[in-house]
Q: What sequence folds into this?
């Protein structure tokens, strides 16, 4: 094994010469400018938005747009259809980087640096030269601590692109500022006294100084990102950056004021999210006529905004978490170009009247802090645990009739007692979040929303019943709706089995199981995947093959015929030991192999996150996982016997059972007349009739939580029901 690992590492650094030589032909056929742009993209713009990359490359006296079209035509790069980001095949990227490596044996004499070890060595030993034009350092969680002398940057006078990105910080974008990683893997020593004035792009997470160098005046710079840094102010005197399009200063906790924007007339994106000590915004910000995105989320100390706002191009405005959001929002009431408006977690109780005329608005988010903290993973002991917050002031649902193009609406935790029937006029609405409100029912007009795909009703504890819902729904969440009794047509429509339905902590739904079970049995076709999680000790006798380990061999029926094969069922009993740790297991999985070891099926235990939580809370107890999977084409090759293997367990004793299911086993199930039925005392679930020996869902204890987990991994189909 060590020699294979060594060979793989060698191929990663020095790719196969024959393959590289063939790919090199396409590169050699490019013009000099096109070659230069190709190498820049390979080293620093993979995954970057195409428009931003073009702006940066154009500022280097290149015809980037035309060159990128040529690169696409030659299949050297691709452009993602959704994110518009630049992409490149690994082999082509390796070829490009090999071309750069051939420039010199000494990394400091190459035009582009991107390999972390090369960057560390060059900066630590101060071996840089004026040859370096691009320097990219991606700091990953696995990186070791590195110490770098800031004086190294003074020698790179021709540096055009500088990217020092901390992936751990970027990946924690949804975390609270208090939970952001405190320590950096890269420690910079000394002051940053000089940076190249040729810079077009400056990304430096955790920039170590309070100010940018006084001599730093990159007139052609296009993008600045100094997120998570110690910066207090960018510069002491106004600068003229006519090409600047992006300024990103996320979570700069020492930043108290913004720079003067007078000579940044082409700025399109300004991101100040998480600058908690920002108290002053320069008046010139209101004159940014080309600004498209303004993000001031969680600028908690910001109290005022310039009264004169002439942002003629502003489309996305985020004031979420601003304590004076109501006051700030009024300033923008005359901006009629908004497409997205986010004012979550503010004290706003109603929108200024002028916002009702924003006919182009597509996203409106007015959610507040959650009033209850729910632990749905504790359903085996408590359906949820509540932690009450101060009762919020009631929010008046805005008049929505004029918002014809609204696609997403979030009014979660707004203490709304009634939802207007006007909501049915939002013909373009795709996602609706009404979580944590106080209404008892929803208007019948919801059925008119033919584009609606997602509804979130979690923690609507007074909601008693659902109206008829449109067949377009593909995701429905209503966990902890403690009064919910009727599901309407949620599981009855033609597309019901293509839905992702989560109903956890809904005790009223399981008080009378017969209507629910009847609905499931008569309207839902035989599932493609079915998973049931329970706490049970015994593997049912229905599983004809059983094993005390994590591998089980099952002989195929004597007259095996794929055309009569309908699927297979497995049953796994987990017994966690005291040494069990969720972190050690990752994502457990299973595989099914033919007699010749060819793989017939392979996958993950999708609900294992729930199983793991249950085991952590019940060390020494039994937790079981029943799984059914329908037939797949791969089983056409099955012969003699198959082997079921369960992998990825540490600190867990595993017992398992398996059964091959053929047509004769389920011939009574074609109509699914009683697919799921409760036991006579109503305390537990069993699978019905031909599945009557399948796992019971709970241990029969009078106080045990009744629950059903039905999970289908095809087209993200899942039904989860938990009761108290």
A:
């Amino acid at each position: 094994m060590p020699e294979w690992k060594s060979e793989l590492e060698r191929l990663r650094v020095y790719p196969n010469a024959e393959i590289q030589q063939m790919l090199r032909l396409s590169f050699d056929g490019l013009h000099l400018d096109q070659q230069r742009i190709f190498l820049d993209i390979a080293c620093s713009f993979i995954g970057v938005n195409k428009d931003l990359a073009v702006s940066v490359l154009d500022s280097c006296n290149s015809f980037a747009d035309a060159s990128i079209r040529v690169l696409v035509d030659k299949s050297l790069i691709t452009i993602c259809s959704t994110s518009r980001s630049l992409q490149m095949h690994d082999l082509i990227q390796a070829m490009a980087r090999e071309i750069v490596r051939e420039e010199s044996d000494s990394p400091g004499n190459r035009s582009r640096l991107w390999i972390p070890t090369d960057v560390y060595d060059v900066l630590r030993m101060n071996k840089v030269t004026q040859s370096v034009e691009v320097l990219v350092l991606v700091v990953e969680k696995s990186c070791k601590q590195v110490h770098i002398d800031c004086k190294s940057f003074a020698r790179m006078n021709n540096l055009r692109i500088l990217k020092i990105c901390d992936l751990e910080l970027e990946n924690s974008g949804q975390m609270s500022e208090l939970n952001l990683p405190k320590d950096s893997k890269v420690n910079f020593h000394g002051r940053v006294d000089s940076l190249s004035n040729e810079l077009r792009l400056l990304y430096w997470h955790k920039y170590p100084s309070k100010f940018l160098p006084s001599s730093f005046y990159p007139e052609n710079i296009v993008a600045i990102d100094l997120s998570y840094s110690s910066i207090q102010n960018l510069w002491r005197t106004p600068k003229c950056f006519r090409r600047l399009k992006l300024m990103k200063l996320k979570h700069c906790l020492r930043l108290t004021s913004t720079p003067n924007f007078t000579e940044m007339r082409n700025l399109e994106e300004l991101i100040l999210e998480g600058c908690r000590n920002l108290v002053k915004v320069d008046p010139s910000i209101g004159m940014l006529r080309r600004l498209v995105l303004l993000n001031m989320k969680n600028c908690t100390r910001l109290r005022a905004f310039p009264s004169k706002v002439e942002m003629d191009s502003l489309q996305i405005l985020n004031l979420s978490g601003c304590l004076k959001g109501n006051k700030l929002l009024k300033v923008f009431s005359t901006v009629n170009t908004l497409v997205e408006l986010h004012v979550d977690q503010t004290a706003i109780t109603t929108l200024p009247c002028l916002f009702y005329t924003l006919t182009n608005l597509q996203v409106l988010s007015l959610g507040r802090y959650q009033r209850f903290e729910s632990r749905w993973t504790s359903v085996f002991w408590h359906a949820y645990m509540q932690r009450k917050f101060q009762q919020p002031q009631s929010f008046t649902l805005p008049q929505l009739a004029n918002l014809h193009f609204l696609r997403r609406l979030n009014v979660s935790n707004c203490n709304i007692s009634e939802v207007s029937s006007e909501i049915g006029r939002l013909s373009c609405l795709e996602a609706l979040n009404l979580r944590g409100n106080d209404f008892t029912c929803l208007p019948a007009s919801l059925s008119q929303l033919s584009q609606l795909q997602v509804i979130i009703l979690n923690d609507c504890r007074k909601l008693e019943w659902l109206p008829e819902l449109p067949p377009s729904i593909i995701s429905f969440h209503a966990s902890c709706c403690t009064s919910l009794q009727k599901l309407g047509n949620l599981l009855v429509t033609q597309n019901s089995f293509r839905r992702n339905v989560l109903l956890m902590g809904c005790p009223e739904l399981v008080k009378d199981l017969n209507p629910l079970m009847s609905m499931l049995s008569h309207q839902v076709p035989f599932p493609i995947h079915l998973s049931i999680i329970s706490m049970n000790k015994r593997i049912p006798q229905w599983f004809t093959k059983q094993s005390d380990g994590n591998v089980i061999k099952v002989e195929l029926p004597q007259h095996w015929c794929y055309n009569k094969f309908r699927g297979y069922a497995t049953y796994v009993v987990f017994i966690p030991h005291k040494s069990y740790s969720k972190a050690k297991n990752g994502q457990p999985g299973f595989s099914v192999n033919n007699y010749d070891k060819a793989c017939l099926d392979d996958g993950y235990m999708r609900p294992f996150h729930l199983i793991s939580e249950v085991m952590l809370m019940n060390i020494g107890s039994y937790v079981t996982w029943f799984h059914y999977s329908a037939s797949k084409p791969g089983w056409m090759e099955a012969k003699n016997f198959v082997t079921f293997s369960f992998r990825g367990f540490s600190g867990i004793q595993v017992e398992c059972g398996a059964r091959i299911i053929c047509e004769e086993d389920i011939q009574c199930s074609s109509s699914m007349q009683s697919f799921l039925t409760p036991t006579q005392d109503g305390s537990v679930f069993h699978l019905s009739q031909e599945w009557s020996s399948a796992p019971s869902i709970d241990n029969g204890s009078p106080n045990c939580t009744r629950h059903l987990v039905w999970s289908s991994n095809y087209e993200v189909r899942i039904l989860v029901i938990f009761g108290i």
Q: What stands out?
A: Confidence is low (pLDDT under 50) at residues 371-391, 516-527, 668-724. The longest strand covers residues 565-576. The domain at 364-505 is CATH 3.80.10.10 (Leucine-rich repeat, LRR (right-handed beta-alpha superhelix)).
